Amino acid sequence: MAKIHPSAVIEEGAQIASTAEIGPFCWISSKAKIGENVRLLARVSVMGDTTIGDDTVVFPGAVLGSGPQDHGNEFLEGAKLVIGKRNVIRENVTMHCGTPKGQNPLPGEEPEKMITRVGDDGMFMVNSHIAHDCVVGNNVIMTNNAVIAGHVRLGDGVILGGNSAVHQFCRIGRKTMIGGMTGVDRDVIPFAIVTGDRGKLRGLNIIGLKRSGFDERTVKSITKAFMYIFKGREGTLEERLAIAKEKYKDNAMIMEQLAFINVSLAGRRKIMTAE
C-alpha cells in the first residue's frame, strides 16, 4: 500500500502506485494517476486527469492539472496534464491542463488537443508556471517565477531564468538559455542565449554546449554559421539561409537550426534575430 498521510484527501478512483508517498493535507482527484516512488511532500493539489511520472518529487503548495486560465475553458471534461518521470516540482508551481484549441503543432504533426505535456528530468522552481496546451521537453529548468503562456513549446535542455516570461505560441529551441527578467515574444533558435527586458538574441549558448559535451570543433562550426546567418551583410536573411543550407549540409546541429528557422518563417510567429 502507498504511504498516505491520514490528513490527505484521496478521491475514489485515483490510481496511486504502491511505492508512492502522499504527505499531509494533499488532495488527489479521482482521475489522477500517481506513478512509482512519487513523493507529494505536503499540501499538493493534483486536480482533474493528471498523470505524474515515476520518481517525481512535488513540494508543498504546488497545484497540478487545474483548469486553464483561458476564459470559457476553465472547467472541461477530458482535459489532461501529463508529467514525465524524475521531475522536481518546487513550492507553489502551477501546471494547467489543455484546451480544445490544442497545442502549437510542428509541420506535418497533428496537434494534440486537451492536453499539456511535460517531459522527464526537469526542475521547476518556486512559483514557475506552465500554461494550457504547452509542450515542455526533457531536462528543462524553469527558475523561480519563470512563466510560459499557452501553446508554448520548450525544447530539451532549455533553461528559463528567474522572472522570465514567454509569450503564447512561441517556440524555444533546445539547449537555449533565456536570461532572468527577460520577455520572449518570438521564436528562439536552438542553442541560443537571449537576454534583455524585451528579449534580444545575443549569441549562442557556448558554455552550455561545452558543458553538455559538445566538442570544440562543433561549437566553432555553429558559431561561424550563426555569424553568417544573423550578422552577414550580403543578401536577405532568406538568401543567407539558402546558402547556409548547402554550405553546412553535413552539420546536423546547423541543419537543426535552419529547419527551426524555416518553420518559424512559414508559420504564425516571427523568429528572433540578432541586432
Q: Can you offer a commentary on this structure?
A:
17% of the residues lie in helices and 25% in strands. With 275 residues, the protein is α/β, with parallel strands linked by helices. Strands 1-4-7-10-13-16-19-22-25-27-28 form an eleven-stranded mixed beta sheet. A nine-stranded parallel beta sheet has the order 2-5-8-11-14-17-20-23-26, with no helix packed on it. The chain folds into two domains: 3-169, UDP N-Acetylglucosamine Acyltransferase, domain 1 (3 Solenoid); 209-266, no CATH class. The chain is elongated and about 70 Å long.
Write the layout of secondary structure elements.
Blueprint: E1 3-4, E2 9-10, E3 15-16, E4 21-22, E5 27-28, E6 33-34, E7 39-40, E8 45-46, E9 49-52, E10 57-58, E11 63-66, E12 80-83, E13 88-89, E14 94-96, E15 115-118, E16 123-124, E17 129-130, E18 135-136, E19 141-142, E20 147-148, E21 153-154, E22 159-160, E23 165-166, E24 171-172, E25 177-178, E26 183-184, E27 192-195, E28 200-204, H1 206-211, H2 216-231, H3 237-247, H4 252-266
Parallel strand pairs: 1-4, 2-5, 3-6, 4-7, 5-8, 6-9, 7-10, 8-11, 9-12, 10-13, 11-14, 12-15, 13-16, 14-17, 15-18, 16-19, 17-20, 18-21, 19-22, 20-23, 21-24, 22-25, 23-26, 25-27
Antiparallel strand pairs: 27-28
Helix pairs in contact: 2-3
Briefly note the structural class of the backbone: alpha/beta
CATH third-tier fold name of the largest domain = UDP N-Acetylglucosamine Acyltransferase, domain 1
Instruction: Tell me, rounded to a whole number, the average pLDDT.
Output: 95
Strand neighbour order, sheet with most strands: 1-4-7-10-13-16-19-22-25-27-28
Distance between the termini: 59 Å
User: From the coordinates shown, what is the CATH architecture of the largest domain?
Assistant: 3 Solenoid
Identify the CATH class of the largest domain. Mainly Beta
